Amino acid sequence: MSTRRWSAQRRRGGTAAKRATLVIHTIADIAAAFLGLWILLYLLDANQGSVFVQFVKGVADWLAWWARDIFTMDTEGLRIALNYGLPAAIHLLAGHLIAGRVRRL
Q1: pLDDT for res 105
Q2: Are 33 and 95 in contact (CB under 8 A)?
């Protein structure tokens, strides 16, 4: 196989890995952003009747279904911050670790 042809194949493979890495990073970042936005909206006492707030809460509930009742504090704001903040951190960590693995393939 010629060097030129091998080089072209290598570049295409690298590009696909970069794209996959970017997609994984982006999904993890968007998931964490929704969770963080819900925490912020809750702490700032956003109008719970708003369609936007309900949408963000629905997405955050879906992303954090497994962690919503891990922490049971008397302070509601702290409870929300911990129960949605933990999944946000895990989404970021897992997404970036998986993307790093994909990049090395």
Answers
A1: 77
A2: no
What are the DSSP calls for 22-84, one per residue? HHHHHHHHHHHHHHHHHHHHHHTT--TTSHHHHHHHHHHHHHTTTTTTS---SSHHHHHHHHH
Q: Which two tokens stand for residue 75?
A: 């302070």
**Can you give the pTM of this predicted structure?**
0.81
Place of tokens 């936007």: 52
Token pair recorded at residue 29: 């970042």
What secondary structure letter does DSSP report for 20? H
Alpha-carbon gap, residue 102 to 7, rounded angstroms: 20
What does the DSSP 8-state code read for residue 105? -
Per residue in 54-98, pLDDT (tens digit) is 999 999 999 999 887 888 888 989 999 999 999 999 999 999 999
